[in-house]
Amino acid sequence: MQFEKITIIGLGLIGGSLARALKESGQIGTVSGVDTDRDTIDYALRNKIIDEGFTESGEAIQGAEIIVIATHVGAIKETTEEIIPDAAEGSVITDVGSVKGKIVSEIESILPPRLSFVGGHPIAGTENSGVGASDPALFRGKRFIITPTENTDPAARDKVESLWKLTGSQIFELDAESHDRIFGLVSHLPHVVAYSLIDAIISEDDSDTLLSFAGSGLRDYTRVAASSPAMWTDIFKANKDEVLRAIGKYKASLDKIEYLLEREEWEPLLDLLSKSTEAKRNKG
Amino acid sequence: MQFEKITIIGLGLIGGSLARALKESGQIGTVSGVDTDRDTIDYALRNKIIDEGFTESGEAIQGAEIIVIATHVGAIKETTEEIIPDAAEGSVITDVGSVKGKIVSEIESILPPRLSFVGGHPIAGTENSGVGASDPALFRGKRFIITPTENTDPAARDKVESLWKLTGSQIFELDAESHDRIFGLVSHLPHVVAYSLIDAIISEDDSDTLLSFAGSGLRDYTRVAASSPAMWTDIFKANKDEVLRAIGKYKASLDKIEYLLEREEWEPLLDLLSKSTEAKRNKG
Question: Which residues of B touch A265 (CB under 8 A)?
Fold first, then answer.
C-alpha cells in the first residue's frame, strides 16, 4: 500500500480516470471522491470508481495524504481556498490544470506553511467529458508534467510523482513558465486556430452548404472546436499572455503564405509546405 | 455493359480507385490505364486494376467513350493538350481536379468542336497516395461534383454522371465558380491554416521539444500538413483568388478572437466559442 488515502476533487474525465487508475493499482487504501453533482457521486460509487463519495470537501479530505484538484482550470484557485481550512498538517495539494504559471503562483501566495502544493498536468484527454467517459488506461504511456518551483517541498514533489506513476504515466518536469509557453503553442494555439476557422465558415451566408462539405478537410477542425467552450475560455484566460504571443507567431506564418500566394512565388511556397510536411514525417 | 471502353490517365489514388470501382461494376468492356511510371502500370496490370496499360496516351485513348484525366491539378491542362490530336470524334474528356474554374475555362478555350469536356471532382481521398493505396470503395456514398458550363454538351454531362454513379458516388452539380469558392473555404483554407500552424511551430528554436508534445492538439494538423506539398502548391496556384479571399475571411475571425482575448472580454469570447461548438454538433 503506497498511500493510505487520496482525495480527488472533481470527478470529470480526468478525475474519474485517475480514480479508476488508482483503484486498479491496488496501492491506495481509500480513494475518496468529491463532486458537487450528486448523480456523478452516485455513478462513481455504483461503478466502484471511488471508495467513498461526497458533494462537499470537508469530510472527504480528512487524513488524505494527497488532495488532487481535478476541476476546470477556472475553479482551481477557489477550490484550493475552500479546502485550506480543513486540510490537515502535511497534506499535499496538487492539480491537473492545463495552465500552470498563474495558477501555481496564485496558490503559493495563499498557502499556509503547514500545506504543500505541487502543480501537475497530465497530457491526456479526449473530446469527451464527464465521469461516464472515464478510463483507467487514459494516462498509460502518456506524459504527466510536474511543475515544482523553488518554493516546492521536494518530499511533496516526490509524493505526487509516485502517485502519477501508479497510473502508468511518464513523469516529465518543466518549470511553470516553460510549460505555459509550450502548451500555448502546441495546444492552446491549435484550438484558437480551429475556433477561428469554424467561426469564418459559419459567418458565411451559406454556412449549412459549406458544413455539408466538412469531409474535405474541415472535419478535424470541427472536432477540435467541439471541445467544451467554457473550459477553453478558462484556459485562454489563465494563459492569456502566452496565447497572445503564440497567435502573433502564427499570424507571421500565415502572412508569409499569403504573401507568397499574392506574389505568385510558387517555388518558395512549395519549399515552405515541404518543410511542414517533413515536420510530420520526422516527429508526428 | 454501359461503356465499351474507358481510359484513365494517371493511376494515382484517385485514378487507381476509379479503375478498381469500374472493373468491379462489371459495366465496362475495357478499362484502359495510362501512367508515365512503368512500375505503376505493371502493378495495375498484375493486380487486375486495369485491362490494358500504357505509358503514353496515344493508343490508350483509341475508341474510348470517356477519357478521365486523373493527374495532379497542375498537369490537367497540359495532358488535355497532349491527347486532343489523338482523341476520336465524340469522345468525352473529364477530370478529377480539386479546382474547377480556371481549369474548365482553359480547357474549353482549347477544345476542338468534335470533343466534349465536363469538369468533375470526386470528394474522396486519404492522406495516402499512389496506386498502392487505391480502393474500389473509395467513392462509395461520397459526393462527385459535376461542373457543367453553358458550353457543355448535355449528353456528355450525362455520360460522366453515369460513369461516376457506377462507383457508388452521389452526383452533386455546382457551377465552377461556386465550387471553387466552397472548396476554397472548406478544403484549401484548412490546409493553409494547418501549414501555417506547423510553420509557426517549426520556426521556434526548440521545435523538436514542441513537436514531441504534438498529441496535445497539434496531431490533427500535422496530419493535414502531411499531404503532398507539390499537389497543394498546384491547388493554391489554380485557385489563388478564392484561397486569398478565404484567408481574408479567416484572418477577420482570428482577429476577433485575438481582440476579445486582449480586451479580456470573456463573455463574448465564450459566446464565439460556443457558436463554433454548435456548428460541429449540428452538422459535423
Answer: none
